[in-house]
Amino acid sequence: MNLQFPELMRTQPYVDGRWVQCGRSFAVNNPADGGKVADVGDADVPLAESALEAAAAAFPAWRDRTAAERCRLLHRWCELIVEHQEDLALIITTEQGKPLAEARAELANAWAFVEWFAEEGKRVYGETIPAPGTDRRIVVIRQPVGVVAALTPWNFPSSMITRKAAPALAVGCTFVLRPASATPLSALALAKLADMAGIPAGVFNVVPSSASQAIGRLFTESPRVAKFSFTGSTAVGRELMARCASTVKRVSLELGGNAPFLVFDDADLDAAVAGAMASKYRNAGQTCICANRFFVQRSVQDAFADRLAAAVKALKVGPGTAAGVDIGPLISTEALQDVDALVRQSVAAGATLVCGGRPHALGGTFYEPTILKGVSNDMPIAVNEIFGPVSPLIVFDTEAEAVQLANDTPYGLASYCYARDIGRIWRVAEGLEYGMVGINEAVLTNASAPFGGVKQSGLGREGSRYGLDEYLEIKYLCLGGMQQ
Ligand SMILES: NC(=O)c1ccc[n+]([C@@H]2O[C@H](COP(=O)([O-])OP(=O)(O)OC[C@H]3O[C@@H](n4cnc5c(N)ncnc54)[C@H](O)[C@@H]3O)[C@@H](O)[C@H]2O)c1
Ligand SMILES: O=C[C@H](O)CS(=O)(=O)O
């Protein structure tokens, strides 16, 4: 990898301000060609335990810094991320596969979280409450929870980390992260920049490891960990949440999705197609908020399908570093097989291929951008989180039917509605059982908004002032003896 600042290429765990040599390593490969990118130091449980100890030791001093001091350090971290964005984008694309333009967009979100929470950390307000008697005063203060342990996914190797670390550090928590084994280099580069920014030793620690289950048990069961924050699949999140019960930890979960994308007969179809492309095919469909099912009102089904097909057929598939590429590789062979199986099973169940529907001629883990029509809500492609570049089209007749079908899933993360009648928009937005609703807009992510899901898509919110609450405890002070 040809970096302008080679020091950003870090391959060892970062614990208590030191880069730790490990006896074992695991390979990080480029999904575009399967080639090895790096061998990364494989942190074991004792090293992860030492990271928790370092975070616990660093917590009192970090907590006791003023919010302004933490703000200044986070702003400096943000400045360094911006300054090194080209290198960081190349690291993302090399280890995860997304087109460079998307990697740059991810980084813009990553530093926006740092910038946003650097400022929000100065607004951790408390309150006084009118007391029931003149002998006392009631005061509420908010304090950092303590040591935070986090697990993050491979699909956004930078922004999923700062979306947690920035609010945690801003309020005075310390942080230990195990990133996904497929994409640890971005996390380690962020650690290098945090170190350069002057964030003290022990405050931000990164332990890449192939021992995901063992370290997951440590993070969820260690009494040193006050807060467990997880982003990943619902299946894994459910298991880890249960493990947190033994110590009654605070838990944040950002889990899987099955986003409905509703297109009504009064929609601006060009806007709906643009939104569909932006939502569905970003990161080759490997995002938690990708449109996963397209519900199209019968009278506009052909017009929408034809325009969508024209746009999908124009997508360029190739390595993320190649100019003009829209669709990069899927993260792994298993991921490719999973997507292809969902398509094949659904065609066998009666769906019709409009375009794509098979692994790409490029080979490797590239998959053809695909549209299926004649899909029903019970087909595998509609029931499962696809995590690939596939658009299933489902026809509906009435507004009530659309909302009922959209809600018929255990997931509740993102949803989308394209219509122009204001009464319809309000009725549908209020009826959708999801944490987020894009109304004539498909790009939801930004640091100022509360991102998160309901039902089995998660607990809590990340981003916005609500994202700060995940790392704070409320304390009630009762001041007695006030009677003269
Ligand atoms: N809601 C959100 O904000 C959001 C954002 C990104 C991804 N996701 C979801 O994440 C999933 C894709 O990411 P993924 O494949 O990395 O998910 P995953 O659940 O397989 O893994 C998530 C993280 O947990 C680790 N892990 C996996 N199994 C574990 C176990 N048994 N014990 C401890 N750790 C374990 C992984 O190594 C990774 O670091 C999708 O479902 C996607 O919707 C959700
Ligand atoms: O996978 C979904 C993540 O939340 C990243 S983003 O919000 O889609 O950028």
TrEMBL record:
Gene: gabD
Keywords attached to this entry: Oxidoreductase
Active site: E254
Keyword Oxidoreductase: yes
Family the UniProt entry places it in: Belongs to the aldehyde dehydrogenase family.
Entry protein name: Succinate-semialdehyde dehydrogenase (NADP(+))
Native source species: Desulfobulbus oralis
Gene Ontology biological process terms in this record: gamma-aminobutyric acid catabolic process
PANTHER family: SUCCINATE-SEMIALDEHYDE DEHYDROGENASE, MITOCHONDRIAL (PTHR43353)
Aldehyde dehydrogenase domain segment(s): 23-476
Entry-linked Pfam families: Aldedh
Entry's Gene Ontology molecular function annotations: succinate-semialdehyde dehydrogenase (NAD+) activity
Keyword Oxidoreductase assigned: yes
Matches recorded under InterPro entries: Ald_DH/histidinol_DH, Ald_DH_C, Ald_DH_CS_CYS, Ald_DH_CS_GLU, Ald_DH_N, Aldehyde_DH_dom, Aldehyde_DH_Superfamily, Succ_semiAld_DH
